[in-house]
Specification:
mainly alpha; about 110 residues
C-alpha cells in the first residue's frame, strides 16, 4: 500500500471512530465542496508539501464520508492511485445525482 493510502486509511479510521452521529447529506456535501476549493487553491509552486498533503487528505476524507452516506462502496486500498480513485468516486456521485463540478463554483 502506498504511503498516501496508508495515511488516508489511518485518518479515515480516526475520523470514523471520533464521529458520534450521522451527519446530514447537506453538511457532508458542504464539506466536500469547501475541501475541494481548498485543494484547488494550493499553488503548484507553493513548496508546502505538508499543506498539499493535508488538503488532499481532507478532500478525500470528505469525499469518502459523502460516498458512504449515499451508499457508494469505497475501498481505501484503491487510493493506491489517488487521482484515479477520486475520479471514480466523483463519477459515482454524479451517477447518484451529485455532480460536484456543477455544485462547485470554482470547479
Amino acid at each position: 500500500m502506498s504511503m498516501y493510502a496508508e495515511l488516508l486509511t489511518m485518518s479515515y479510521r480516526q475520523a470514523r471512530s471520533e464521529s458520534g452521529r450521522t451527519p446530514k447529506i447537506a453538511n457532508l456535501l458542504a464539506d466536500v465542496i469547501s475541501s475541494r476549493q481548498r485543494l484547488d487553491e494550493i499553488p503548484v509552486t507553493s513548496g508546502g508539501a505538508s499543506d498539499d498533503l493535508a488538503a488532499n487528505i481532507d478532500y478525500d476524507l470528505a469525499l469518502l464520508a459523502l460516498c458512504n452516506a449515499r451508499g457508494i462502496l469505497v475501498d481505501l486500498a484503491r487510493f493506491e492511485r489517488p487521482l484515479a480513485e477520486r475520479a471514480r468516486l466523483e463519477h459515482e456521485l454524479a451517477a447518484h445525482g451529485i455532480d460536484l463540478d456543477e455544485l462547485d463554483p470554482i470547479g
